[in-house]
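User: I need a structural model of 2-dehydro-3-deoxygalactonokinase from Rhodalgimonas zhirmunskyi for a docking pre-check later this week. Nothing fancy, just the predicted structure tokens so I can convert them on my end. Input:
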Amino acid sequence: MSTVPAPAKGAGGLDQASPRAHLPAAARGLVADHAQAHPNWDGIVLLPGNVPGDPTHWVHLSAGEIISFQSSLTVRLNTALAGGTTPDMDALDATLSRPERLASHLASAELCKDADAILGHLLGAELASAKPYWLGQEIVLLGESPLLPAYRAALLSQHALLRS
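Assistant: Understood. Predicted structure tokens for 2-dehydro-3-deoxygalactonokinase:
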């Protein structure tokens, strides 16, 4: 297993010591394909979990090299909590500005059976956590996740720089 920084193109996944994370080979392959198509690109490749158990990966790519990455379990948590597919933007904003209130926000949304608020709160917490990755960076969303549109909407609501 390789560690970062490492070329995007390579066999197997990547490990990172801090924050502790693992980028599976399939995710690395998607990043490598983007790096090959855009060799001088510098930015963030966002890979929302493709299936409910997959982590989401925020990958810093620069000139074909994976510099660092951060992973989250938002997709898995959204599935476990019966969250929706369209984030409630008020919920997203509330948790983005006060991520320490995530647990109480989720309890309220679950009590009200508000699936979109659950997703909004989870995405708000993830955006707060990943802010050093996305703020001021160009972001490309890749993969087949059913939550890809939700991530796009969440980032656009924060005026993030999304690449088409």
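Before docking, keep this in mind: The chain has seven helices and nine strands.
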